[in-house]
Design brief:
By secondary structure, the chain is α/β, with parallel strands linked by helices. It has helices spanning 3-9, 43-54, 74-84, 88-103, 118-129, 173-185, 218-233; strands at residues 18-20, 30-35, 58-61, 110-116, 133-139, 159-165, 189-195, 208-209, 214-215. The termini are far apart. Pfam families: DLH.
């Protein structure tokens, strides 16, 4: 395995995931794993975990980079993200390990992955490549996820929900259509929701760079969370 990857993401990396337990007994078997943006675990992801827990589901926001290891400058964020998604095998091995650490007793859990931006892609990676995954929800995530080497190796039982800004410059029409064709070829249960007049990072209150295609949209953010709520209830 790439030693640089190990040094950045595994060797002596101490993590503290953010865990919130849901209070509904009928939903206790459902564990939501939240993958962060390329900024790492922040108050945003913790707030999402709190909102999901308020619906009765247990949620864990993943500490992707480790305690006090979140990149700050844009170049650092891009470099760390690039290293993370450079190769499929180490990425999926890391995600599997983090999922197990986040879910404690993984046996018997219905695990649904949710993510934002980079985390949206990671949720799709987890849904397709981790056998423990029952579902995956991507908020403004890229469609550049690693495809399975063969249909046999794909986790085709996972349900997929993509929540996408139609004006997101990072997801072209070709990218969207190719991803849909791919999931369809595997016979997977997928939904791809486009929101009109909506850019990248529409869930993030801090996003305010419309010149570069990134803008918070509070109305769409609320609407998209409603789609997540409905999706999670399918697993009860």
């Amino acid at each position: 395995m790439n030693q640089t990857f190990e040094a950045i993401f595994k060797d002596n990396v101490k993590r503290m995931h953010y865990q919130v337990d849901g209070l509904s007994s009928e939903k206790s078997h459902i564990q939501v794993v939240i993958w962060p943006t390329f900024s790492g675990l922040t108050d945003f992801e913790k707030g999402i975990a709190d909102r999901i827990a308020s619906l009765g589901f247990s949620a864990t926001a993943i500490d992707l980079y480790g305690m006090d290891e979140n990149p700050v400058e844009m170049d650092q964020k891009r470099a760390k993200m690039g290293a993370l998604v450079a190769e499929a095998e180490p990425l999926h091995e890391l995600m599997d390990g983090l999922t197990q650490s986040a879910c404690d007793a993984i046996h018997g859990k219905t695990i649904v992955h949710v993510g934002f931006c980079l985390g949206g892609r990671l949720a799709l990676e987890a849904g397709l490549h981790l056998e423990s995954s029952a579902g995956a929800v991507s908020f403004h995530g890229l469609m550049s996820f690693f495809r399975a080497q063969s249909e046999v190796k794909a986790n085709t039982k996972a349900k997929v929900l993509v929540l996408n800004g139609y004006q997101d410059p990072l997801v072209s029409e070709d990218d969207a259509q190719e991803a849909k064709r791919y999931w369809d070829s595997l016979g997977m249960d997928f939904q791809f929701i486009d929101f009109s007049n909506t850019m990248h990072s529409f869930m993030l209150p801090s996003a305010n760079n419309p010149e570069h295609g990134s803008q918070y949209n509070p109305q769409i953010a609320q609407r998209a969370f409603g789609y997540l709520d409905n999706f999670l209830h399918e697993f009860i």
